[in-house]
Amino acid sequence: MSAINAIRIASKTQPAKQSLIFLHGLGDTGSGWSFLAEQLQRDPAFRNTSFIFPNAPVMGVTANGNDPTTAWFDIHSWDNVQLQPDESGFLKSLNVIEKLVGEQIQNGVDPQNIVVGGFSQGAALALASAATLPTKIAGFVSLSGFPMINDKLLEIKNATNSDTPVFHGHGDQDTIVPLNDGQSAKQFFTKRCGVSNYTLNIYPGMGHSACPEEIDDLVKFFKKVLRLN
């Protein structure tokens, strides 16, 4: 298996017993979210947790006038991110998640100790993986996520993670991915894809970003699904 371009942060104590895979948003890189590892590793509960922050490829994004930037899939319109969805690019990036999960299992991590998450574009992929990943894992995280390639997901979905916990955090002042898109995501994945254990947390005043309250809730979620003290 060829190595996937990612920032990998080893657990403080070896061997790693848990793994967090987290995908960044458009125009960012894995290092943009590596603060999560820095924050969590200050807590002894995460001493055996490793972190993987994959880097998206550089591509021309239609909504940016085809200017090259890091992206997991193309976006055609900022007014409607689901317009002319880049199905092939999305599925290719979805496969990155499956490969990274397989990599962690190969490294000796129990799949029940793996969490997959992301922000914005990365969150859209994390949500899709909740409906399609063939391996049952501990949990999924969507920060400011939205539904993509819905028709295709209905074709390829499976029930492996139907009861796996999903944490979705969204700001009510998000102008890039409006809260309505987050609510649509919950509706689609619970009602159409059978992802039943889905919690949408709304953060007043938060835009297209993260806030301390959301990160605190996220840490609690990690501890719960990974069964950490």
TrEMBL record:
Coiled coil: none annotated. Its EC number is 3.1.2.22. Residues 7-225 form the Phospholipase/carboxylesterase/thioesterase domain. SUPFAM superfamilies: alpha/beta-Hydrolases (SSF53474). InterPro entries: AB_hydrolase_fold, LYPA1-2/EST-like, PLipase/COase/thioEstase. It holds the Pfam family Abhydrolase_2. It catalyses: S-hexadecanoyl-L-cysteinyl-[protein] + H2O = L-cysteinyl-[protein] + hexadecanoate + H(+). One of its GO terms (molecular function) is carboxylic ester hydrolase activity. The keyword Iron does not apply. Keywords: Fatty acid metabolism, Hydrolase, Lipid metabolism, Serine esterase. One of its GO terms (biological process) is fatty acid metabolic process. It is an enzyme of class 3 (hydrolase). GO terms for cellular component: cytoplasm. The keyword Lipid metabolism applies. Belongs to the AB hydrolase superfamily. AB hydrolase 2 family. Hydrolyzes fatty acids from S-acylated cysteine residues in proteins with a strong preference for palmitoylated G-alpha proteins over other acyl substrates. Mediates the deacylation of G-alpha proteins such as GPA1 in vivo, but has weak or no activity toward palmitoylated Ras proteins. Has weak lysophospholipase activity in vitro; however such activity may not exist in vivo. This is Acyl-protein thioesterase 1. It comes from Lachancea quebecensis.
